Amino acid sequence: MNIQTDVIFWRLAFFFVIEQEYTIARLSQDKREIWLENRSNKEAMLIRLKNQDLGWAADLGRDVKRIVWNGEQIRKKMGMRKLSLLNIVVSQHPPVNEYESYLKPVLSPQGGKTKVDTLLFTEKDLNQSLRQLGLVLSPVPERRDFDGAEDEAAAYERSVLSHEVKRKEEEERFFHYGKPFFTYLFTAINIILFILMTLAGGSTNTTVLLEFGAKFNPLILEGEWWRFITPIFLHIGLLHLIMNSLALYYLGIAVEQIYGRLRFIWIYLFSGFTGSLLSFLLTPNLAAGASGAIFGLFGALLYFGVTKPKLFFRTMGMNVLFVIGINLVFGFTVPGIDNAGHIGGLIGGFLATGIVHFPKKRRVLQQLAFIIATVASVAIGLVLGFQSGYAALDADSVNLRVQEEINVGNDAEAEQMLKAFLEDGGEPSAETYFYLAFIEMGDGRLVEAEQHLKQATRERANFHEAYFNMALIYVENGQLEKAKQSIEEALTYAPDAANYQELAKKLE
C-alpha cells in the first residue's frame, strides 16, 4: 500500500471518530476496512471506509454492489425503516477505465430502503472528494491535513484506536455502575404480597385489595395517603404479577446498573407515586400494580436518551422507544388498563432521574430546575385531587366504598357517604339507589326504600335484587298483589334463584 493512501485513510478515520463522534462498529483484522456508526446523522448513519488499490472499474462496481447488499442486511437487523450508508474507498489511483457511473447513489432492490453513496478518495482528486464529503458532513478537514509521512498515518491510527478503547471503557463503566439488588428485592416483595393476598381471599377480591392498600379514591380523600405508594407492590391476578415481574426484572437491572441502587429506589418509588397520583386525578377506579413504577424506569431510560442521545440510540434507544409506544397503544386500546398510571409513572421517572442525574456527575442548574418542576407538578396534582372531593368520584367508586361500610355494620356512615355523593352532584347508578334502599329497609323506612328501589329499576330494568326487595316491602305492608308482581319481575331476570322461588310459592 502507498504511504499517502494510508495517511488519507487514517486521517479520514480520525475525522469521523474523533471530530464527528462516530463509533467503530467493525474493524478488519488487517485494519484496511472500518465500519463506523452514528445514528444521529441521518444522511450518513453508517460509513464504510476501505483502503484498497483499484484496478478496473468493475472492481469498484462489485464492491458497491456488495456494500448495498450488506447495508440492507444491517438495516433489517437494526429494525430501521430506512438507512443511509456512505461508502468511502481510498485508492492510490482511480480505475483505469470509466468508473463515474459507480459513484452515483444506489438504492437497494425491492423498495430502495437502503441508500448507498460512494466517494472515491485518491491523492490526485482529493480536493474534489473533500467537497463532496462536505455535502454530507462539515466542516471537513483541510487539504493540507492529508500531507504527511508514514509516521503521520501511524499517529492518526493510534489516536483513533486509543480513542475507541477509552470510549468502550467509559461505556462499560456507565452501564455497570451499580450491581442490581433492589430489583430483586422489589420483585420478591411483589410475589410475597401476592401469596398473602391469595391466602387472604384472592388477589382479585375487592375487599382483600382494599385491606392490602390498593389505590381507591374515596379512602385517599379520607386521608389514607399511603395508598399512593402501597399499590406499587400489589397485583390483580397471576398474569398481572407475571407480566410486571418480567418487566421489572429486565428494566430494573438495566436502570439499577446505570444509576446505582440509591437512585434506583428513588426513581422506582417516586414513579409509582406519580403513577398513582395521575390515576387518582383521572380515573376513579380501584387500581393496583407496579406498572406506574415500571413506566418510571422507562422514563429513566428516556432521560438517558435525552442527555446522551448518541450513546442511547447506539445501544438501546430504538428498542426502548418501540416498547414504550407498544405499551401506551396497548393501554389506550384495551379496556381495563390504567393508562393514566402508566403515563404518570413515565413522567415521574423522567423527573425523578433529572433530579439525581447520573452517578458522579452534576448539573446543578438543570437539577434545580427539575426539582422545581417536580415539586410544582406534585403540589398542583394533590391540590386538584383533594379539592375535587366526592363530586370527582364516580358512582362505582362510591358504591364500592359504601358496600365495605355496610359489610362491617357502618350503615349510618354508608348512608352519609351516599347522600354526600348525591348532594355534591354525583351521577348515581342503580346500585346507588339500591344501597340507600337497603339501609332504609334496615331502619324501617319502607316508604323511602320503596321509592329508591323504583329508581334503581328505572336505572337498570333487569335489577332483580331490587324487585325482590320491593316484594319484601309489599309483603310487610300487606300489599300482596304488588308483591306478586314484583317477585314475578325478579324471577323473569333470575328464574333459578331459590329464595325468589320460595317467596313466590308463599304468595300463591
In whole angstroms, the N-to-C terminal distance is 111 Å
Number of domains: 3
Q: Over all CA atoms, what is the radius of gyration?
A: 35 Å
Widest beta sheet: strand line-up: 1-2-3-4-6-5
CATH topology of the largest domain: Rhomboid-like fold
Describe this structure in words.
- This protein folds into three domains: 3-176, no CATH class; 181-362, Rhomboid-like fold (Up-down Bundle), CATH 1.20.1540.10; 395-507, Tetratricopeptide repeat domain (Serine Threonine Protein Phosphatase 5, Tetratricopeptide repeat), CATH 1.25.40.10.
- The chain has helices at 3-19, 57-78, 126-134, 150-175, 182-200, 206-212, 217-221, 238-259, 261-282, 291-307, 309-315, 317-333, 339-356, 364-388, 395-407, 411-423, 430-442, 446-459, 464-477, 480-493, 498-506; strands at residues 23-27, 33-37, 46-51, 83-90, 106-107, 114-121.
- It has a six-stranded mixed sheet, with helices on both faces.
- The protein is built from 21 helices and six strands.
- Helix 10 crosses helix 11 and helix 15 runs parallel beside helix 17 (430-442).
- It is α/β, with parallel strands linked by helices and 508 residues long.
- The chain crosses the membrane at residues 181-200, 232-252, 264-282, 288-306, 318-334, 340-358, 370-393.
- It is a multi-pass membrane protein.
- Residues 223-356 form the Peptidase S54 rhomboid domain.
- One of its GO terms (cellular component) is membrane.
